[in-house]
Amino acid sequence: MIAGIAISAPANAAKQTLTVWATGGDADAAVLAAAANAFELTNPNVTVKVESISWGDGFAKVLAAAAAKKGPDVFTGGLSWGISAGNKGALADLRKLGVASYVQPQVPAKIFQALVGYKSTKVYAVPFDLTLMMMFSQEHHDKSWNYIGSKNSC
């Protein structure tokens, strides 16, 4: 929780619950729940509720929650989700909350610019993890994948 590192609740604050939607499966939610438990230890007035949402309908769920103004406090998702939902007015500008100034020096400039989006100065998302796309070479994949590596493929 990069934002969780930069933000802590005052000791005398009223009890609060933060809801986090972790896009992926139960394992993704479990990783965030472990981080949430550590956050709760140093912030006893905060309870973090982590829920798993699927990649299949996650973005639609985020947009529906934004339209209803009843979404989570934090969510994970695809890079374009933050830019798209933020440009629709659904997300907080993290620069105003001070999160961006904490994160920006720790992120390569080109990645940070991708988070901001083209023609924008607002920051709606910060890096959470790194996902890689990989493909087996032509020699190692099943023959049913012959189109991969063919002259007609990209």
Defining key terms:
globular, D-Maltodextrin-Binding Protein, domain 2, alpha/beta, 154 residues, disordered N terminus, three-stranded parallel sheet
Written description of the protein model:
The structure is a single chain. The chain is 36% helix and 12% strand. The chain has 154 residues and is α/β, with parallel strands linked by helices. It has a single domain, classed as 3-Layer(aba) Sandwich (D-Maltodextrin-Binding Protein, domain 2), CATH 3.40.190.10. It has a three-stranded parallel β-sheet. The chain is globular and about 40 Å long. The two termini are 36 Å apart. The N terminus is likely disordered. Helix 2 links the parallel strand 1 and strand 2.
Percent of residues in beta strands? Answer: 5-15%
Please give the share of residues in helix. 25-40%
Distance between the termini: 36 Å
**Separate helix tally:** 6
The number of distinct structural domains comes to: 1
Question: Going by CATH, what is the homologous superfamily?
Answer: Periplasmic binding protein-like II
From the helix content, strand content and strand pairing, which structural class follows? alpha/beta
CATH architecture heading? 3-Layer(aba) Sandwich
Report the strand count: 3
The main pleated sheet reads as:
3 strands, parallel
As residue ranges, the low-confidence spans are: 1-7
- Can you tell me the CATH class? Alpha Beta
Please compute the radius of gyration using only Cα atoms: 19 Å
- Whole-number average pLDDT? 76
Element string (H = helix, E = strand): HEHEHEHHH
Looking at CATH, which topology would you report? D-Maltodextrin-Binding Protein, domain 2
Overall spatial form: globular
Strands of the widest sheet, in order across it, are 2-1-3
